[in-house]
Amino acid sequence: AAPILDGRAVAADLTARVAADVADLSAHGVTPGLAVVLVGEDPASQVYVRRKVTETRRVGMRSIEHRLPRETTQEALLTLVAALNADPQVHGILVQLPLPAHIDAAAVLDAIDPTKDVDGFHPVNVGRLSIGGGLIPCTPLGCMMLLDQVIDDFRGLNAVVIGKSNIVGKPVALLLLDRECTVTVTHILTRGLPEIAARADILVVAAGRPGLVRGSWIKPGAVVIDVGINRVTAADGRSRLVGDVAAEEAGHAAWLTPVPGGVGPMTIACLLSNTAAAARAGLRGEAA
Ligand code: NAD
């Protein structure tokens, strides 16, 4: 099996640093506050929100939760976002996606103050990402921090990203480009994907397809980041979580992130880190 790039350990380190930062901010009279808005009862979203709230409190931040019924109107949601934008005790705002179909998610994300947009989904932060600065989306930031554990010099490395979503694939590709990697972004219509993947020194997989990446797609010595989280039913009838990489075939990789315990824990740690950074930027009276 490939050596494990342990997201739980790296996330624990980052979380401890955030907790120290929160203590310092609190000593200066600013307790970072994260507002989480959940509309409806999507079971996966409820799990994510519960986890985020627990971790927020654990590092000493204030957690402000708004659980709204499924029937909430877009207008009511926009009113809430405006109130959170104006609230000086709120430094980060997270609207849990997906939103019910009758709400225009883009309009809601657009309404969040970009300096409080700790998910990094606001168009201003998306734009800043491509020219440097701004709040960086949590999962891509977590991927980069994991890569930083095992790669000193990214310059000139071949990086292949599988998946081009706005929340993972595209931002990861931009961050890798920023490090002077040669980046190839691939997706479901890419031709010859196994050969393209096999040229990667860094392979980031975010497709949401269990076992998509086979052993032959992985260059010996590659660093493989498996972002996928897929619930599958095993032969014994039990359900479990697996990534997008056939981990049992990846023994020749230099490093592989496990699922669970890889990118997932980093995502939450980065959310806390973004919130502390937003609070610190507020303390300095500047945009995050
Ligand atoms: P998405 O569905 O928005 O995008 C998937 C992308 O993968 C698309 O660009 C699509 O073209 C590509 N793709 C799909 N099938 C493919 C195939 N067979 N070959 C090549 N490309 C293919 O998904 P997303 O939101 O980016 O999430 C991707 C995966 O990452 C999911 O499993 C999701 O659960 C997981 N995820 C994990 C975290 C985390 O914290 N670890 C965060 C976000 C998403």
UniProtKB/TrEMBL annotation:
Residues 5-119 form the Tetrahydrofolate dehydrogenase/cyclohydrolase catalytic domain. It holds the Pfam family THF_DHG_CYH. NADP(+) binds at G163, K164, S165, I188, I229. Homodimer. CDD domains: NAD_bind_m-THF_DH_Cyclohyd. Pathway: One-carbon metabolism; tetrahydrofolate interconversion. This is Bifunctional protein FolD. Belongs to the tetrahydrofolate dehydrogenase/cyclohydrolase family. It catalyses: (6R)-5,10-methylene-5,6,7,8-tetrahydrofolate + NADP(+) = (6R)-5,10-methenyltetrahydrofolate + NADPH; (6R)-5,10-methenyltetrahydrofolate + H2O = (6R)-10-formyltetrahydrofolate + H(+). It comes from Brevundimonas aurifodinae. GO terms for molecular function: methenyltetrahydrofolate cyclohydrolase activity; methylenetetrahydrofolate dehydrogenase (NADP+) activity. HAMAP family: THF_DHG_CYH. NCBIfam families: PRK14188.1. Catalyzes the oxidation of 5,10-methylenetetrahydrofolate to 5,10-methenyltetrahydrofolate and then the hydrolysis of 5,10-methenyltetrahydrofolate to 10-formyltetrahydrofolate. Residues 137-280 form the Tetrahydrofolate dehydrogenase/cyclohydrolase NAD(P)-binding domain.
